[in-house]
Amino acid sequence: MEHTSRRLMWHGMCLFLLGLLTGFVEQRFANVRMGLAAHLEGVMNGIFLVALGAIWSEVRLPPSAKSIAYWTALYGTYVNWLVTTLAAVFGTAALSPISAAGHSGRPWQESLVTAGFMSVGVVIVASSVLILWGLRPKAAH
After folding, report:
1. Phi, psi dihedral angles at 136 (to 5 degrees)
2. How many Å apart are CA 44 and CA 81, to the nearest integer?
């Protein structure tokens, strides 16, 4: 279990670093506002994974459910940063009209970013529900 906690923390710090590095280049993106969002997604999702690693031993789920929670948390956090970064590069407006501020990408770019954001939304909610279920009082051993 300690190994999984450390892996979550490692991934959290890796994503945190990706977010910091994204901040250095956000002015070069087609959509600077979305570049800022990508920077913040990396930093915040990295912090989330570090925190999740710190409490991972308290999440009480069957092994298969805990594995799903782990992999969906990683998918949701990394892909959130990646799709937000792609949206900044492409200058898309998909599912983010406030950050788009008059930008739009090619139809395939808009579709890719929309699909990415939708998948992240579903996956990160599923992961959060599993983790919350594993932290309920009755789940304690």
Report:
1. -65, 150
2. 10
